[in-house]
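Q: what does this look like with magnesium ion bound?
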Amino acid sequence: MKLNINNKFTNELPADALDSNETRQVAGAAFSYVNPVKPKKPCLIHVSKELAESVGISLEEIKSDAFLTIFSGKTILEKTKPYAMAYAGHQFGNWAGQLGDGRAITLFEAIHNNRSTMFQLKGAGKTPYSRSGDGLAVLRSSIREHLCSEAMFHLGVPTTRSLALFTSGDMVLRDILYNGNPAYEKGAIVCRTASSFIRFGNFELFASQNDIKNLQLLTDYTIKHYFSEINSVGKEKYLEFFETVADKTREMIVHWQRVGFVHGVMNTDNMSIHGITIDYGPYGWLEDFNPNWTPNTTDNQYKRYRFGNQPQIAQWNLLQLANALFPLIEEAKPLEKILNDFPIKYEVDYIEMMHSKLGFEFSSETSKNIINLLTQNLQLTETDMTIFFRSLSLVSKVDSVENAFEKIGTSFYKLEEVKDSVYDTWMYWFTLYINQLKLENQSDSERKKTMNLVNPKYVLRNYMAQLAIDAADKEDYNLVNELYEMLLKPYNEQKQYEKWFAKRPDWARYKVGCSALSCSS
Ligand code: AMP
Ligand code: MG
């Protein structure tokens, strides 16, 4: 395997003076050199071939022993020195101090076709930032990260990617429900990729240490390598940087709301500076459209990270980033302006996105009203978000309201509840919707095509991931493969996968892993 190594992060930013994996507080450093723990018997479970090729690894090389041992952390590639990044963060609204890569270790950066990629192992053992954790990961959470990051990519949502999934051959002790019942589970490692894994928290760390020199170094580094379109200087440069991060973050959230993704742990240490989805933990997919839903049991009480709250949380997280960058700007007003503009711009983008989901070309007071009413209607009884929007594209300008309603009928979890005033509300909505379609220039078939490009047919429903996990636990990886293949083309009709275009089955409603997940991973 010939990789064009270029470790710019470690070359240009300060290293921790110590290089042991011992847990500690680290100051004046952007990272610490560490050694991944050697997995006892690494086994390749799944690889994203198309990602491998895009980073310069051939299909032949994937099958090699070198691929298996390098990307599972068993052998360290020549001229590379793995490291864990230092960062801090706000967790669930509170300052949490130093966090850092507790179970992530970056192996190296490599350039292919002028694109630089960081390769990072998740679950490769302790680092100085592991606190009380073991730095390891279990199979269930690794399958979830591997499948979901690839699914998100193919949905067109900005995200980190996952190159490969391995079992480690080691057993890992976890208390899944945090109820005093720890048990051994299969250990696993994911090798994930991104242009960088820099988070809001990397900036918060230096700001909290009052280390303005390194704060500036990190910010200049980030702008130079990843925001090269910014060519202003001084304070203006940092402001432009902040504004660009706000824009990218906003775009990411609009995508989440479009596909029904709930991150579950939007702490500032889980917010990428590039506006890409990062750290797939207790995430989930909306099944019935419920803005108050969060999959994360740790957040059950306040539901801070519920679906409908993601835009507000993004803004709150940006406020923390603004505070961290403040020493480089020293003026609150322009930062406040960017923060105050965030919800205004978000609303514009959100409305535009919803127009595309409904198949409207033009925006008017009426079309906006139809969107608002729909958001309410979807909550009248349990209604499957993915099935509803996908089926909506079948509605035609010449349909009667009854006909139109029938076409989306399978999206209701309990059709028998859609009666009386609920039924009337839907009839009224379809009257408005069909009237609006009649005003559109697009033909029914053109509209169907464009709607199907934004309303996925297949998403990684929570229970689907759990079925793949249950099978994988018995060393049957067929479902991991099948879901991966299906999710490569989430907007396409794929007859062979039609069975996955279905509502969550009843058994999955309250099953652990299907609707509720803890942070234990
Ligand atoms: P997360 O909620 O997964 O984003 O993790 C928050 C912090 O805890 C990060 O600094 C992680 O690196 C760390 N962490 C999570 N799980 C483990 C683990 N098993 N061992 C060590 N550190 C962990
Ligand atoms: Mg994290």
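The first helix runs from residue 8 to 12. Residues 361-441 form one domain.
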